[in-house]
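User: Can you predict the 3D structure of P pilus assembly chaperone PapD? Sequence below.
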Amino acid sequence: MRLLDKAPALIFPLLLASQLSFAGIALSSIIIDMPPSSKPYTDITVFNDDKAANAYVIVELYEVINPGTDHEQRRFVQDPKSVSLLISPNKFVILPGGRKQVRIVDIKGPGDSDRIYRAIFKPVVGDTEAASTGVKIMIAYETLILRRPKQPDYTVQAKRQGRQLTFTHTGNSATKLESVYHCAQGQSLKQQNCTELKGARLYADNKLTLTTPAGGEVFYELVTADKRLKNSLR
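Assistant: Sure. Here are the predicted structure tokens for P pilus assembly chaperone PapD:
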């Protein structure tokens, strides 16, 4: 499945042609989830949507430190061996309307907790285009890569006090909080008197606090690498 509209994109203009134009690539997936039982590699396909010009693409890899917190940092990876993740190839050309398969390899294997990365697939200017003038819009796409630990623990504790609802991830592997609704007393999700609240991806040690209407019941789902768990809290 090709994902274009929903992929996180970084848009940057470059001086290129005599008029405004776009350089388009698309990715087969924007989230790579590697559970401990899977093979130590996975593939992603990059498409060139331009039917007339080559797409020149480079891939930048970043290790994410303290993901989902105020202290989150992204460290550019110069040596793949330092983080045990390899993307190959990380520079390539795609013919007009063509595609390229890129392999993501975990060199070390699963550890004791998640290893989180971001890979940016960035189109760059070819030699012929660089000699011309004008503006061309280049759209880069970002992929989230999660390498799950040997024994994933997705435990999320939910606590409600007054109008404050707090989710605390006490495990070692990311989960996604989805379909969060507050329903008035005696109402179910199938009825109209419910308010949708914000969901989020919760990494290990993350905490999310939401403000809810008073009383009633909160329904939510926790999505792990292989399950979708429905819960509620009064």
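The first strand starts at residue 9 and ends at 15. The two ends are 39 Å apart (CA to CA).
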